[in-house]
Amino acid sequence: MDFFRQTLVIARKDLRAELRTKEAINASLAFALVILVLFSFAFDPLEEQTREMSGGLLWIVFAFAGTLVLNRSFAREVPNDCLDALVAAPISGAALFMGKALANFLLVISVELVSLPVFGIFYNVHWTSRIWSLLLVLALGTWGLTVIGTIFSALTVNIRLRELMAPLLVYPMLIPVLMSAMQLTMQLIAGKPLGGENEVWLRLMVAFDVIFTALSLVLLETVLVG
Amino acid sequence: MREKLIYGLGTIAAVLLARDLYSIFMQLPDEASQGMIYRIIFFHVPAAITAMLCAGVTLITSVGYLLTKNLKYDAISVAVTEVGLAFLAANLVTGSIWGRIIWGIWWTWDARLTSALVCWLLYAGYLMLRRAIEEPTARARISAVFNIFAFVDVPIVIFSIKWWRTQHPQPVFWGGGSIDPAMYLTAVLNLVALILLAVVLALIRLRQEEVQREIDSLRRYAHAV
Amino acid sequence: MSAVAAEGVWKFYGDYPALRDVILHADPGACLALIGRNGAGKTTLLRIIGGFSKAGRGQVRIFGNDPRETETRRRVGWIGHGISVYDELSALENLTLFGRLYNLPDPHKSAMEWLERTGLDRVKDGLVREFSRGMRQRLAVARAFLHQPSVLLLDEPFTALDDRAIAVLQRLLREALAEGRTVVMSTHQLREALELATHVALLNRGKVAFHGERTAQMVADPGWVYAHYDEA
C-alpha cells in the first residue's frame, strides 16, 4: 500500500541522513551518560533506596536524551527549505508523520539500549531478570515519547526559540506515559512481573500511544499547511 | 452591546459574591474538624470547576477556528484560556493555603493538586507558544492544534496521577464527606458567581485581543505604504 | 480548462489582506511571469498555488483540482527560495529519494537522467554540502523537473543563480514549454523572465494591476509594465 511505502521512504531518508552525520544521536548518547553520572552525585548509588527509584531515574534520562533527537525531527527539514519539498510531494501527512516517527523511534531506542547496560553498571542494578517485559515497557514508553516529540517538533518548526519551546511544551504532555513507564520499570527491576496491579499502567501506556498516534496522524497536515 | 453585557454580568457576579461572603463569614458555623479555614472551599472548588469549563470552551473554539478559519474563535480561545489559567492558579493557591493551615505544609503531592498543577503547566504552554509566533494566522492554527492535544491529555493526566496516588498514598486534601444543605446553596451560588466573573474577564480580554489585532493589521498597512 | 487558475483569492495575515481578490489564470503551455515589487504578494500567491498555504477566501485550481490533492501534487514541480535538497545526502541519493516520493517507475534511472541533463552526473555521489552554489542550484532544478510535472511553479528562480545555472534553467524551461507544460514564475529579473514568458501579470499590493499577453514592447523595455500599470 502507498501509505506503508511512503512511510518507509521517509523513515529511510531520515535514518540515512542522521546516521551519516550522527550529530543528534551522539549528542543524545553523551547527554544520557552525563545525566547518569550527575545523578550519581545527587543520590548515592549504593543505597538500597537509590536502586529502588532507579527505574524512575532511568526514564528521566530517556526523556531528556530522547528530546534531543526528537526536536531535530522537523528542524532538520528547515535548512535549504526541504520542508517545502516534503509538503509539495504527493505523500499524505499521515505517511510523513509515521515515517519520521518510525525513524525517531529507532534512533531513541538505540540510545536507550546503549544507556541501559551503562545504567546497570553505574547503579549496580540487575535489569535483566524480566528482560522481555522490560523491553515491552521500553518500546511502549519510547513510542509515546516519540509520538509527542515528533508532532511537537512539527508544531514548533517555524517558530522563534524552537529549541526552548519544544521541550517546555512536551514534558507536561508526557507525564502520563513517563509515569507509567517509571512505575513499571521500577516494578520489573525489583523482580515483580507485569500484570495484576501493574496492568493498569500498561493499559494506560497503550491508550496514550494509540490516542496520540491517531491524533497526530490526523493533524499533521493541518499543522504544516492549514 | 458588549459593554452592557459586561456591566450587567459583572453586577450580578458582584451581588452574588457579596451575598456569599456575607453568608460564608457571618451566617455559617465553623466546621467540626477544620475550624475557620474550611470556608476556603467555597472558592477552591468552584475555581477548579470554572477552570475546567474554560478548558472545554477553548477546545470548542479551537476546533471552531480550524474548521472556519475565523480569527474570532482564536480570540475567544486565548481570552478564555488566560481566564481559566487564572482560576486554576487560584485553585492551587487556595489549596496550598488550606494545606498549610491544616497540615502545616505548603504542598503535598496530593492527586488533585498535582493534577491541577500539571494542567496549569499544559495550558501555560499554550500561552507561551502563542508568544513565540508573530503571524496571527499561523499562531491561531498552531495554538489551536496544541490546545486539542492539551485537552485530550487532561483526562489521561488526571487518571494517571489519581492511580499513582492510590498506589502511593499521601495526605489527602479534601477528604470526602457530604455537605450540609445550608452550605450547599452558598457553594452553588459561589460557583455561579465565579463563572459569571470568568465570563466578564474573558469578554474584557476578548476586546483587548480584537483591538490588538486591529493595531497589528494597521501596522502592516503602514509598512506596506 | 486552465492549467492554473486563481479564482477570487484573498489571503489574510491577521486582518491584513496580503492578497485581494486575485483573479488570474494560465492556460496549458503558457508561461506566466508574475511581476511586482517586494511585498506585492507574488510569493504569497505562488505558495497558495503550490499548496503550501490556504487561501483565506476564494480558491486556486490546478487543472480544475485542489492543489492539495495527491494526484495534483504529482503533476506540480516547485522551485522556491531554498534548494530543497538535503545537504547530508548525495546528489544521486537526493534525486532517487524524490523519485520514490513521486512514485516514479524507475527512480534510479530518472535520477541519473536528470543528473546528466543538468550537468551533475560527474558529481552524482558527492554530498550536496560539498557542492558549489551553482551546482546546488542545478540540483534544485533537477529535483523540480524529475517527475515530469505538467505545471512548474518557480519563485524568483533566476535570483542568485550563476550564469551557467541560468543557462541550464532557461534551456530546460524552453524544452518544457515546447512539450506543452505550463510555467508560472514570479520574478524580479525581468529580462530573463520576459524572454520566456507568453503572459505577464503585475501584482500591486495584493491586487492584480495588469494581466495580459507579453508583447514585443515589454521585451524591448522590461520596465514598461511597471511604468504603465504600477501605482506608486
Explain this structure:
The complex is a heterotrimer of chains A (226), B (225) and C (232). Chain A has 226 residues and is mainly α. Chain A contains eight helices and no strands. In chain A, 54% of the residues are buried. Chain B has 225 residues and is mostly helical. Chain B has one domain. Chain B is 82% helix and 0% strand. Chain B is built from six helices and no strands. In chain B, α2 packs across α5 and α3 crosses α6. Chain B starts with a helix and ends with a helix. Chain C has a single domain, classed as 3-Layer(aba) Sandwich (Rossmann fold), CATH 3.40.50.300. A six-stranded mixed sheet of chain C has the order 5-6-7-3-8-9, sandwiched between helices. In chain C, strands 2-1-4 form a three-stranded antiparallel sheet. The mean pLDDT of chain C is 91. In chain C, α4 packs across α5 and α5 runs parallel beside α6. Chains in contact: A-B, A-C, B-C. Chains A and B meet through α6, α7 and α8 of A and α4 and α5 of B.
Observed structural traits:
heterotrimer, B: 225 residues, mainly alpha, 6 helices, C: 232 residues, alpha/beta, six-stranded mixed sheet, 9 helices
Describe the SSE topology.
The complex is a heterotrimer of chains A (226), B (225) and C (232).
Chain A: H1 2-21, H2 23-42, H3 48-75, H4 82-88, H5 93-122, H6 131-155, H7 162-189, H8 199-224
Helix pairs in contact in A: 1-5, 2-3, 2-5, 3-5, 3-6, 3-7, 5-6, 5-8, 6-7, 6-8, 7-8
Chain B: H1 2-27, H2 41-68, H3 71-103, H4 111-131, H5 136-167, H6 181-224
Helix pairs in contact in B: 1-6, 2-3, 2-5, 2-6, 3-4, 3-6, 4-5
Chain C: E1 4-13, E2 16-26, E3 31-35, H1 42-49, E4 57-62, H2 70-74, E5 76-79, H3 91-101, H4 107-117, H5 133-145, E6 151-155, H6 163-178, E7 182-186, H7 190-196, E8 199-204, E9 207-213, H8 216-220, H9 224-229
Parallel strand pairs in C: 3-7, 3-8, 5-6, 6-7
Antiparallel strand pairs in C: 1-2, 1-4, 8-9
